[in-house]
Amino acid sequence: EADIYQTPRYLVIGTGKKITLECSQTMGHDKMYWYQQDPGMELHLIHYSYGVNSTEKGDLSSESTVSRIRTEHFPLTLESARPSHTSQYLCASSEPGDSLPSYEQYFGPGTRLTVT
Amino acid sequence: KNQVEQSPQSLIILEGKNCTLQCNYTVSPFSNLRWYKQDTGRGPVSLTIMTFSENTKSNGRYTATLDADTKQSSLHITASQLSDSASYICVVSDRGSTLGRLYFGRGTQLTVWP
Question: Does B14 touch chain A (CB under 8 A)?
Answer without folding.
Answer: no
